[in-house]
Write a structure and sequence with these properties.
By secondary structure, this protein is α+β, with helices and mostly antiparallel strands. It folds into 3 domains: 72 residues, Muramoyl-pentapeptide Carboxypeptidase, domain 1, CATH 1.10.101; 161 residues, Alpha-Beta Complex (endopeptidase fold (from Nostoc punctiforme)); 64 residues, PGBD-like superfamily/PGBD (Muramoyl-pentapeptide Carboxypeptidase, domain 1, Orthogonal Bundle). Helices cover 39% and strands 10% of the residues. The chain has a 6-stranded antiparallel β-sheet. A hairpin with a 4-residue loop joins strand 2 and strand 3. It is elongated, with a radius of gyration of 27 Å.
């Protein structure tokens, strides 16, 4: 929840135990802003603390009329609050959009990389069917970079027509986990025993899957690993070596012997040139507000977005490296216009 005051005040009368959560929240934000304190919890509940702060405000506004010190936020109290706001117009100019969530980057980079390296949904099967089809050009470059020594692998695996090789290439090339292994047993052992870059979720509902999740299932006769890319689809290579990386409909056996999700967590906490996705869109929208730029909010961190970030960092005395990290985010949240 955004707990910063934005100049909005209650539109209806509220008092102790009021169930009007929206208006109580607005009032709590105002009180925190007015007193320059953040100790009043903004929870939409008009409890004892909110009553006390309200009476304190009324005592200041109506010093000679104790009848108004009733803890009820009515027209007169709201009127005094509106008068106070007029003398501090900056409070009305806090950013109203959503800031980038740097904690969500891990899943984003895995998801974006999977979409970039796989054949798109709907591509003719002949394009990616082994041995007549082939992997995408991007995937060929990626696997050569992250698995340069693979001459001892089978032909299918060496070229990427294997589910674990495809997922391993995506995860390694994304930069999230440079030591991600191949082989289902090795993947499970790596994640559960040797890495803090993953959260293990046992048998989640399909509705609980998030973009970038690495999903593994095994039955008595087969096993498979893939990357969930949203909208009921997965990025995969066929588990029996028949197909290269592509996007297809989500499939999980009704009774798998094993079904786990490995969710990317941690990793880098900054947006940089070349990134794509929702967090970049949020950054671009913020920069347009803060810097007056006219960036296209397309989710692509290109030259113009990098230039805007550098300009922002210079303006607010931050290291102008063009990477929007935790220091830049903290400053962004403190900016008023």
């Amino acid at each position: 929840m955004n707990v910063r005051y934005t100049g909005k005040l209650p539109t209806k009368e509220i008092k102790k135990n009021s169930k009007d959560k929206a208006n109580v929240t607005l009032w709590q934000k105002f009180l925190n802003w007015y007193y320059g304190d953040k100790t009043l919890v903004v929870d939409g509940l008009f409890g004892t603390h909110t009553v006390r702060w309200t009476k304190n405000f009324q005592a200041r506004m109506f010093p000679h009329n104790k009848k108004e010190w009733d803890g009820i936020v009515g027209k007169k109290t709201v009127g005094k609050a509106r008068t106070a706001t007029k003398f501090m117009p900056d409070a009305k100019k806090a950013y109203q959009g959503v800031y980038p969530d740097l904690n969500a980057l891990a899943g984003d980079v895995v998801y974006d990389t999977a979409k970039d390296l796989a054949w798109k949904y709907g591509t003719k099967r002949s394009k990616y069917k082994y041995p007549h089809g082939s992997s995408t050009t991007n995937f060929k470059s990626a696997i050569a970079k992250v698995y340069p020594k693979r001459t001892s692998w089978s032909v299918q695996c060496r070229l990427g027509a294997s589910c674990d090789v495809f997922v391993g290439t995506v995860v390694r090339f994304s930069g999230h986990d440079a030591t991600f292994p191949r082989g289902l047993d090795d993947v499970r052992n790596h994640i559960t025993k040797h890495s803090n870059l993953w959260k293990v979720i046992n048998r989640p509902k399909k509705s609980e899957l998030k973009k970038g999740d690495v999903v593994m299932w095994e039955t008595a006769s087969a096993g498979h690993i893939f990357i969930y890319v949203g909208d009921g689809k997965e990025a995969e290579a066929n588990h029996n070596g028949k197909n290269y990386g592509h996007i297809s409909k989500l499939y999980i056996p009704s009774e798998p012997k094993l079904y786990k999700v490995f969710r990317p967590i941690g990793g880098r906490k900054f947006l940089k040139k070349g990134d794509r996705g929702k967090q970049v869109e949020r950054l671009q929208a913020y920069l347009n507000w803060c810097m007056g730029t006219k960036l296209e909010v397309d989710g692509g961190f290109g030259d113009k977005t990098e230039a805007a970030v550098i300009a922002f960092q210079k303006k607010y005395a931050l290291t102008p490296d063009g990477q929007f990290g935790t220091a830049s985010l903290a400053k962004a949240k403190a900016v008023r216009k």
